[in-house]
Amino acid sequence: MRRSLAARLISAAAACLLTVATLGAAMVAQAQGAPRGAAMVVDGHTGKILYSRNGDAKRFPASLTKIMTLYLLFDFIEAGKLNAGTLLTVTPNAAKQPPSKLGLKAGQKIMVRDAIRALVTKSANDVAVTIAENIGGTEKNFARMMTAKARKIGMRRTTFKNASGLPDRKQVTTARDMITMANRLMFDHPEKYGYFKQKYFKYRGKKYRNYNQLLFDYRGTDGIKTGYTRASGFNLLANVKRGNKHLIAVVFGGKSSKRRNAAMRSILNRALPKATAQLPHKYRPQRKKQVQVASTLGFPIQASATPASLETRPPLPQSSPETVASIPKQPQTPKTPASDAKYHIQVGAYARQTDAIERLAAIQQKAGDVINGHAPMAIPLVEPKRYLYRARFAGFTRQAANSTCNKLKRRAITCVVMSAE
Fold first, then answer.
1. Looking at residue 183, what DSSP letter applies?
2. Any catalytic annotation for residue 256?
3. Do both 335 and 252 map to the same domain?
4. Domain assignment of residue 414, yes or no
5. 66 labelled catalytic
6. Which end of the chain is less enclosed by CB atoms within 10 A, N or C?
7. pLDDT (tens digit per residue) in 99-126
8. Pair (238, 357) in one structural domain
9. Spatial distance between the Cα atoms of 146 and 132, rounded to a whole number of angstroms
10. Are residues 235 and 228 in contact, defined by beta-carbon separation less than 8 angstroms?
11. Shared-domain flag, residues 386 and 327
C-alpha cells in the first residue's frame, strides 16, 4: 500500500532532523575534545618531566580555572589594592551562577579571606564571579587579564573566557600549562599558597569539605585543586612533597572522581622513585651547577642555581649567615654606615634554601634598581617544629627599609621590615 504524500513528507522531515541531531552530537563531542584524558608529572626541584600523556593537547580546565582567578587576586593583595579583610560586593550576575556555589545574594558582601577559602574548598562559582567583577569590572575583562597573566608566565596554549571554569568551548589549556601555573603561583605567592592545603571551610554556620581527596589520604599532598564539567571530565592538579622530593602533577578527563584520584595516585607512585631526592643526612656544599629546566614549562629556576644537595635540612652552621653566593650580585655600593644599617627587608621564608635563593634572585631581576647595594641573604632559623630559610636583603636604616619595602609592594612584591638579629 502506497503511503500518502503527507506521510512521506513527515518521514523525510524526521530523517532530516535525525541527521541534524547526529551531526550536532558529533560537533559537540568534537568541541568537548574527546578523548579527554591527559596527564603530566614534573619534578618540582628540577623541572624535569617524569611522565606525560597528551601533555600538550588542549583540554578544558573546568574549575582548575579558579587557580588563576586566585593568582590574580593574590597579585592585587600584594600590590596593596586589596587585603584579607576587604569586602567584595556580590552582583546579580554573580548570584545567578549555577552550582557549585555558596548561594550568595545580590548586594551581599564577602571578605576576601572567605572568598579565597570558598574557591579552594567549595569551588564556588558565585564567589569566582564576585572576585572577577570586583577586580576587573566585568567577568569578560577579568578573563582577558587572566589570559594575559597566563601568557606572561609561560602558559602558551591557555585561553580563559571566564573566572569559574564553567563550560565555554574557547576556554582551553594543557597539562603542561596547568603545571606551569601551579609552579609559578607557589613561587610568586609562597605565603598565599598555604590556602590550598585547607581541608575544611566554615561560613555562616555551614561547614564545607575540600573536594581534593588527596589532601586526606595521600601523604605529602599540600594542594592544589579539583575540577569537573561534562566536557572536561574529572580533573585534578596536585602538589606533593615527600621524603625531600617534590612533584607537581595533573590529570584530565577522569570518568569519575574515584577513578581520577586512582590515576593520580598511580602516576605519583611511579614518579616518586624517579624524582630528585635531597641528601637526607649530611650537608655537603658543592660548587654551583647548571640546572636544566623542562622546555617551555615556565619554571623560574634559571641558569645558575644551588645544587640539589643544598636543599637538605643540614645542621646549621655555627657562623653568622652568609650572603647567598649563587645569586648574581648587584654592585655593592654602601648606602649607609654599617652602624646605622640595622634592618633587613624579608621577602619570604622557605623550608628549602634553594627556594629562598630563587626568590631573592627573582626579586633582583624584577627590582634590582630598588634593592641595589643591599646584600641578599638566606638566613637559617631553627625552632622545635620548623626549619626555615628567611630570604632577606640587608643593610638598611629603619626609614630606608620602610621606603624600600613600599617601593617593592608597588611592584607586587610582598615584603616586611625586620630588625637584624
1. H
2. no
3. no
4. yes
5. yes
6. N
7. 999 999 999 999 999 999 999 999 999 9
8. no
9. 10
10. yes
11. yes
